Write the structure tokens for this entry.
Amino acid sequence: MNRILIVDDEASIRLLYSQELVDEGYEVDAAGTIDEALALLREKSYSVALLDIKLKNESGLDLLQKLVKERHEMGVILSTAFSCYKDDFSAWLADGYVVKSSDMKELKDEIKRLIERKRVR
Amino acid sequence: MGYKCCWFNPGRNIKECPNIEEGEEYLFTSPRKRLVEKCINCKAFQDDIAQLAEESPLRKIIVTLCEEYKEQKGHLQSLSAFLTSKSREIKFLHELSLVLQTSMELDEVLSVAMTAITSGKGFGMNRAFLLMADRDRKYLVGHLGVGPRNYEEAWRIWDEVDRSNFSLTELSKEFYKTKISSERAKFQDILEKLTIPRDLPEHIFNRALNDRRPILVENASQNPEIDPVLVSTLGVEQFLVMPLISRNRSIGILLADNFVTNKPITPRDMQSLQTFAFPVAFAIERASLYERLNDEVEKQAEANQKLKEQQELIVRMENMAVVGRITSSIAHSIRNPLAAIGGYARSLMKSGDLNEKKEYLEQILQKAKQLDEVLEEVLSYSDSLHPVIDCWDLNHLAVSVAAEMEERFEENGLTIVLNLDADLPQIWLDYKQIAYCLKTIISHIALDLSEPGTIEVETSCSEESVRLCVIDKAVTLSDEMKKALMTPFMETAELGQGVGLPLCKVILERHGSLFDIEALQGGGTGYCIILQKQKEDKES
């Protein structure tokens, strides 16, 4: 089963995404901070990580750089309320970029695309 | 012995004296005056004196006295003439300096100077040319010529001047008002030939300027130091080269000659002209500097105006940017909870046991979707900062957007009529942003439709720009309403409030284009996007 890691400082978003993705048949873990995310990453491997960019006083883009270096087999999707980061060079390291919306179809399609791509490799 | 002179013939009628002319009748009654003015030079008197001298012991004294008298008289006459000439010169220079001191207009100063040189009431030269140093001081450029070009013209001009009986000041004013341009044109060929570079130290003009002294050229065609081209251009053997120097600056050269009369130019003429050249050089320099100062003031005023406009633009942009930052911040604060609300509502919708409340959930979803759309619009403020420019077919963009908007506003009964210019060239633009602006304009009109209506979308092209206009024939906006439409969140009773059209303005300004709302003749409003053609667009 494909495992998804959700990193978002909003508890309601973590819960919503977790439920939706579990319903889609994924195994899901969620972290509210970068430290929590790194702790989970040390224990398990994930097919895809969903990263929020604004994490209270931290930046999801910092975590993104670490993940790209150390976990290059894992797909990373930036899931954020900010559409402007699309033009940020550091955001280009991610495999996908989804602006948060009440409709999660785009996010789910993006996760599927990354998992499919990994399978093809 | 017989005397011939009337002094020794008392019976002779004085009125028969051959030396007294018409107008000198006063001499008939004044023997003393007659003696010193006429008799001294009278042949009969001289013969009688010579005869008397032979017989008289006073002979030597009388002859000496007569000779001394004549010499003194000549000297006095010469001094008197000199005095008259100097008085006239001083009066003339005084008159001239008054004009030169008060005039700031270069052409007016030149009119005075050139008239003074060529007028009989001034220096009386036949012809004069002025050469002026250019701004870089690299050339002496033929600037103005005054005088006749041939004998016929000379007699005609001098006759006119004689009959007009104008003073020097009046003559120069007349010249300034009516003749300066035609004189410049008349001598254009000569002026062009007189122009020389300043870096030819051997040229007579440069020598006069460098040595700071006038040069009277004689026998020009025989003089190896004079350029033969200059001699043939002027067509005279004698001419005067007068340097114009103000402080240490070389202003130019005055050339003067007697082209028609061939009257010799004397060292005294040269000296008088030199006295005159100082105030002229000073006045020319002052007028030139004043002219340049005026140019600079004009440039400065233009720059100030531009600066003012830029400052206003910056203030407006800053205001927009502040609004942008605020809306962006609000939007991001809304998006997270909104995503959660909508997300949970969707989850609930999927579960079967909430059928009774399904209508409420649908409402939550619908409103969340609406809020999402508003957020998209608000967030476009920050997206508008960096346009992505590419070459596009504007007609294609209009067709795509019209189709999408007709579908979106199907319920409002919206019909979009396209009047597209088939010859429209491709143009550099940010497709996403221009499409957004067109959609926003159409939405703005469509949302106000109370009954099914038609909107026209037109494209057209000119030399400098391509226009994309949306025509709303139903509503004519007042100036106040137009202003309100361009200001974010400004509310009017007619228009409600929003950021859509102000955002379009910001996007288009950053895009280097214009957004104009025009009242149409016969009623209605045109919302026009004016895209300036780039160099590449114009070439294609």
